Amino acid sequence: MKSKEKLQLAANKLFIENGYENTTIEQIAQLAGVTKRTFYRQFKDKSDVLFDADNKLGKSVAAYIKEQDNSNSNYIRTGVDAFIDLTAPMFSAERERIITRYHIIQNHPDLLERELLKMFELTETIKDALKSAGLVDQNDCDTTAELIVLIFKLAFQRFVDEETKSFVEWLNYFFDKCSFLIDKEKTI
Amino acid sequence: MKSKEKLQLAANKLFIENGYENTTIEQIAQLAGVTKRTFYRQFKDKSDVLFDADNKLGKSVAAYIKEQDNSNSNYIRTGVDAFIDLTAPMFSAERERIITRYHIIQNHPDLLERELLKMFELTETIKDALKSAGLVDQNDCDTTAELIVLIFKLAFQRFVDEETKSFVEWLNYFFDKCSFLIDKEKTI
């Protein structure tokens, strides 16, 4: 295992056991079996361990969208499928870590701001991917990307709050829910 | 005019004329005809002038939603109408200030983070308002509030980028666009 992964694992273990506030960088480095210096080569600070600094998720989702046969141009479904393929296995396997991370972020306004900025970047990356995949109209691109990320956000939140459905089920649930609620408006 | 409004007007004038970076709190206070001390009684710092610290917009939208007759329960439309009634006149009258503000925020990651947090708070306020107005299911509330804010966000962005439509026209445009894109998925 690389030192970065060792540090992430150690940090998450300590956040769960002792709380985010009570965990020091010294303890994280010690548990990972590396020096504090190694920690600072990988992360700027303690909060950095919680974030995907390289926008890895955004890049994977973008690659997934570009790889699909988009001749049917059902882009919202493709985006939701990207999240199903790319995040669902990890979300099921690491539920405890994800919930802990979520609660840490909700309780620290500065971390919440950073999380919102990550979602903003994710949306921008998906907009670009849709454009590359052949969705030329800017308004279509923007709206589609925002709807994809919205469905992801809603599914993620409910996944954290409730264990009644898997992450995949929540993604499909909110895909249908958006469609249902918008449709309802028309029949009134 | 109250000193708070005087300071906001002065700050916006200076941001437009000299740029955000080049404007000092001293200059803002001077142009408003008050002391620096008065500035700091109203605002924490220069960036604070750009933000609606009291979530005034969120509270107004919430009040609007609660006041409507919701027996038809077309909540997304009600939310979009709230933005039309509450923000459209101001948006048309102060287009230059709004565009300047938008560009300042886009160019400063810390201000962008704060803006995203404001949108997050706005969404939470609308969720609560929908619940009070009779939308009992949590998933319906969350999805409806997110869709309302999404339509507002998309319309706002395009209003800033393009002068081809009024803010009201952009709101209605993206209301229809969301519906159209989601519908298209079904016919494939």
Highlighted features:
9 helices; Arc Repressor Mutant, subunit A; homodimer; 188 residues; Tetracycline Repressor, domain 2
Q: How would you classify the quaternary structure?
A: homodimer
| CATH C-level class of the largest domain in chain A | Mainly Alpha
Please report the total strand number of chain A as a whole number: 0
Rg of chain A, Å, rounded: 19 Å
Largest sheet of chain A: none
Order of helices and strands of chain A: HHHHHHHHH
Helix-and-strand structural type of chain A: mainly alpha
General description of the model:
The structure is a homodimer of 188-residue chains. By secondary structure, chain A is an all-alpha fold. Chain A folds into two domains: 3-49, Orthogonal Bundle (Arc Repressor Mutant, subunit A); 51-186, Tetracycline Repressor, domain 2 (Orthogonal Bundle). Helix content of chain A is 76%, strand content 0%. The first copy, chain A, has helices spanning 3-18, 25-32, 36-42, 56-67, 75-93, 95-106, 109-132, 138-161, 167-186. The first copy, chain A, is globular. The model of chain A has no long low-confidence stretch (mean pLDDT 91). Chains A and B meet through helix 7, helix 8 and helix 9 of A and helix 7, helix 8 and helix 9 of B.
